Amino acid sequence: MKNFVPLFIFILILTGCNNPGGRTWMIPVSIDPSDLAYTPSSMESFEERRSQLIDSLGSGYVILRSADQSSSNRHEFRPNNYFYYLTGYEDRGSYAILSKDPHASYTLSTPPQNIRMQIYDGEVLDAEEIMEKYGPDQTVTYREVRALIDSLVKTGASIYIDRSDRTFMRDLQEMAGENGSTQFKHIGELVDELRVIKEPMEVEYMQKACNITAMALTNVMRECKPAMYEFEMEAVIEGTFLEYGSAMPGFNSIVGSGPNSTTLHYEPNKRLMEDGDLLLMDVGAEYGYYTADITRTIPVNGKFTAEQGKIYELVLEAQKAAIEQMIPGHMFTDANDTIKEMINQGLVELGLITDPGSPWQLSFYTIHGTSHFLGMDVHDVGRYRDRELEPGMVITIEPGIYFREKALEQAQEMFKNDADSAVIAEFIEEITPVYEQYVNIGVRIEDDILLTTGGNINLSRYAPKEIEDIEQIMK
Ligand code: GLY
Ligand code: MN
Ligand code: MN
Q1: How far apart are CA 25 and CA 466, in angstroms?
Q2: What pLDDT is attached to residue 75?
Q3: pLDDT, block means (10 residues), the chain with 475 residues
Q4: Residue with CA nearest ligand 1 atom 4
Q5: Nearest CA, atom 3, ligand 1
Q6: 198-473 shares the fold of 31-194
Q7: Would you state the pLDDT for residue 416?
Q8: Per-chain residues with Cβ under 5 A from ion ligand 3
């Protein structure tokens, strides 16, 4: 059951009903990781997910493992999303097997344990504790589970796995042998649609991830000034994540100033910021394995120039209008259509688009799509095409306009399939004097929108985005 009403009331109480703003920017987030505790009620949610999955499983088996890589010194352990979504279990080196077998529909392996591992990694739960806390029908040891998996992949039944875990897939294919008739299918076929509609517990984590991210962005607004490095801002952002109990970002932080604000997925974050630059930050804290994905663009010196302000307002107004389109029953693409229309119109008025009916001229400035599902993955699972919006979906809205330095010289190559070269040349010639006033301006504004029965809630509403608020905070 996906019952949202109590949750929304809870969120409103928790976050207050007032618009954020004023002299001190209030963000309702506290350092309190108690909400991450695994409780009997979370156990019920995971049970419900497994039972929905098993209902649609037929005679096949699901085999998942907890980690994408069994060991690594470089990265913190994080369980595989499908494994965690179905089990709530977080130990590395574990396997889960699900099937319709009434006596053993859910098998969980216990982690390999020896004294040496305990010395290095600490103690893990034993089989009895795992049974009690996570509710499998049976537990098996690491050795036993490998033998069990080996026998299952040789039965010829359909085996559902996470096909993006390539190493594990190859491993299983080898076990099945070249002549086996086993079909390896993607677990996403059975689970992705469940993941698209967020449950109250998932929304709570996403709200907190957004609030932590809003806090991080606001902290940058307070700290940022010319002659600081982008990585110093990255440190403020990721330091704030850690401070509030987010173990890691949901994706690599994009912190790009000046020309780097026009590079969509800029990640080096190494440049010395200059007076007059914009700073584009596309970042997200992860909380309870759910990520935020928020972009804010600010002036490094605290005050937008006239040109920066014009582009910023255009993106902001389009984004706000698009958010209003995010209501159940509308199509996934409606918000994007609104963005295109408004930005097209604005760029025509600024003399940057010469043919209002030309999609390629618009994409010269806007480049990317403006929405994706958000959840355990930043680009979360689920079918986007030809579908209506439904309560419980969380979707980003992220319009942008970019003035890359090299865009004019690359336009012929980029749009050779869209227009005649003479038409492109004429466009370039006409816009060049105006374009030059905007070079190195990149503006993207991204919010995370939860669809509700009545409309939507902007989960990232505490990240300031009005020019007046940003300039006030940066004073
Ligand atoms: N941060 C990646 C994206 O916005 O899609
Ligand atoms: Mn983003
Ligand atoms: Mn995004």
Answers
A1: 13
A2: 65
A3: 47 44 78 94 94 93 80 71 96 92 90 85 89 95 93 92 92 85 93 97 98 98 98 98 97 98 96 98 98 98 98 98 97 96 98 97 97 97 94 98 98 97 98 98 98 97 98 97
A4: 293
A5: 293
A6: no
A7: 97
A8: 293, 396
Paired strand residues for 295: 282, 446
How far is CA 241 from each of CA 219, 234, 271, 420, 456, rounded to the nearest angstrom? 11, 11, 22, 49, 26
CA of 261 to the centre of ligand 1 (A): 14
CA–centroid distance, residue 449 to ligand 3 (Å): 11
Which single residue is written with the structure tokens 């759910």? 290
C-alpha 257 to ligand 2 mean position (Å):
16
- Measured N-to-C along each axis, helices 407-414 and 421-438 cross at an angle, to the nearest 10 degrees, of 150
pLDDT at 150: 94
Ligand 1 atom having least distance to the Cα of 396: 4
Cα atoms found within 13 Å of the Cα of residue 235, Cβ hemisphere only: 8
**Rg for the chain (alpha carbons), in Å?**
25
For position 21, what pLDDT does the model report? 44
**What CA–CA distance (Å, rounded) separates 311 from 438?**
9
**Cα–Cα distance list, 242 to 28, 49, 209, 238, 249 (Å):** 16, 30, 11, 6, 9
CA distance 401 to 218: 22
Ligand 1 atom closest to residue 254's alpha carbon, by position in its atom list: 1
pLDDT at residue number 23: 52
Q: Which atom of ligand 1 is nearest to the CA of 398?
A: 4
d(CA 3, CA 434): 52
| Residue spans per domain, the chain | 31-194, 198-473
Q: What is the CATH number of domain 198-473?
A: 3.90.230.10
Q: Supply the pTM of this predicted model.
A: 0.93
Residue nearest to atom 5 of ligand 1 (CA): 379
Determine the 3-state secondary structure of 410 from DSSP: helix
Which tokens sit at 155? 């039965």
pLDDT of residue 73: 58
pLDDT at 18: 41
Q: Rounded distance, CA 409 to CA 401, Å? A: 18
d(CA 280, CA 378): 18
Instruction: Give the span between the Cα atoms of 329 and 331, in whole angstroms.
Output: 6
| Enclosing H/E stretch for 81 | helix 81-87
- Residue 225 CA to ligand 2 centre (angstroms): 23
Q: Any residues with Cβ below 6 Å from ligand 1, and which?
A: 251, 282, 293, 372, 378, 398, 446
Distance 295 CA to ligand 3 centre (A): 8
Question: Residues 304, 471: contact at Cβ < 8 Å?
Answer: yes
At residue 288, the 3 state secondary structure works out as: coil
**What is the CATH code of the structural domain delimited by 31-194?**
3.40.350.10
**How far is the C-alpha of 344 from the C-alpha of 324, rounded, in Å?**
18
